[in-house]
């Protein structure tokens, strides 16, 4: 549950710290006191778009911090999937906004808005007036039905996604290969020419590197030969370095026995003599290799040109050219046996399509079962919310072609007056009725939902009197199993509070500041009396507020 909300320097709020409790938390206050700012702050912390204009005038930054406790397994799994730490079995979500940037953190780790939103799905469900209107969209109806159906439909939809992906793949391949005879022959002729061109070259991996080395040697043969000739002359054993080293060895030999250090010098000279001999042999061998014909040079050059031409067309290495050859050979085989290939692809596509249809039937059956059950429990919930004569059905309409969501459309049908036929919700429900329908849906889904905290904003839109009391009772029921945070202006709903918070604003030092405080039982009665609507709170209003409060407490005890 959401145990603490801390807000600093946002809009009218200078700083407030709210410790929330289990059960039904009611937030009330005069219009414009800042109730919507608190809900907006929670949304902000949960990844909503940040605007620097939200920062309180004169402040350097705005800050929102949410602390969640009593976590369930889904929360721990989400944290683990995102490689985020847990601290003392709590989740702390923080958002700091400055004029130039916005920083989101979960348990001290900087995260993205997407990560926060993913985690928030396991922690909290925020229900505002815009969600009432979403009931007018049939896509929302399918979402609600599937949520009620639970993991059975979720798993089936995941399997449908896999088989539909395979079906789409084969379908796209068929469309890509649907060539007319002229196109097929044109592609085949080109591929056969390219295959023949590569095969004729008889390429060998690494051949190009060896040829390039040979070509460089042949191209600079005269320069290499002249350099070798001069080097050999410099170190030969007639007048070059070899002769001088041999002479040094002979001069030193008679005195070797007189000093051990002379032996070391003799060894050095012999090593030099060996190196010079090896140099002469290697240089002569290389010089002999410089002897090649004009034909050898031309053949090497032509071979390199052939390979480089193929590299330009098919890949920058021989290995890539050979891989391209394999792909082209395979495509040639496909085109040579085009009809057989198309038939094979058609068979695969048809098999995948049958799997899609079979999976859609599974999903349809699950939805039909869930629709019958959900229609019944929602009708009961609507009657409890003061719909005096209501009929509610969930209709599944088959589609001509399957999709990733199945093979039907889902629509909620309702009749709220005796004798009237069932009609689409968009044609029947008023704003107040939509809010009650959504509350009924939330109540039903909450019994199957692991999310502990539900926030209701504008749930009392368009209702009053006895209907408001029925909504209050429903919120009281929800508060037995979930933490509910509800903003309201109706005393009937506020009377059901387990904890009541008053949001107010006042002028301080030339600016307006909103604040929030938890009310005692006596203060709650006073606030309920104010909400009744009298300009001055009379004894009768206080007595009425006290009676509402006692009635609410009695009802909660009876649940």
Description:
This protein is an alpha/beta fold and 559 residues long. It folds into three domains: 2-134 and 449-558, P-loop containing nucleotide triphosphate hydrolases (Rossmann fold, 3-Layer(aba) Sandwich), CATH 3.40.50.300; 136-170 and 337-428, no CATH class; 182-328, no CATH class. The protein is built from 20 helices and 15 strands. Helix 7 runs antiparallel to helix 13 and helix 13 (318-336) crosses helix 14 (338-384). The longest helix is centred in the middle third of the chain and has 47 residues, at 338-384. The model has no long low-confidence stretch (mean pLDDT 85).
| Oligomeric category | single chain
Low-confidence stretches: none
Q: Number of helix segments?
A: 20
> What is the CATH superfamily classification of the largest domain?
P-loop containing nucleotide triphosphate hydrolases
Number of domains: 3
Summarize model confidence as the mean pLDDT: 85
Structural class: alpha/beta
Tell me the helix content: 55-70%
What is the CATH first-level class name of the largest domain?
Answer: Alpha Beta
Shape: elongated
Strand arrangement in the largest pleated sheet: 2-1-4-5-6-7
Strand content: 15-25%
Rounded to the nearest angstrom, the distance between the terminal CA atoms is 22 Å
Biggest sheet architecture? 6 strands, antiparallel
Number of strands: 15
Rounded Rg: 43 Å
CATH topology of the largest domain: Rossmann fold
- The name of the CATH architecture of the largest domain is 3-Layer(aba) Sandwich
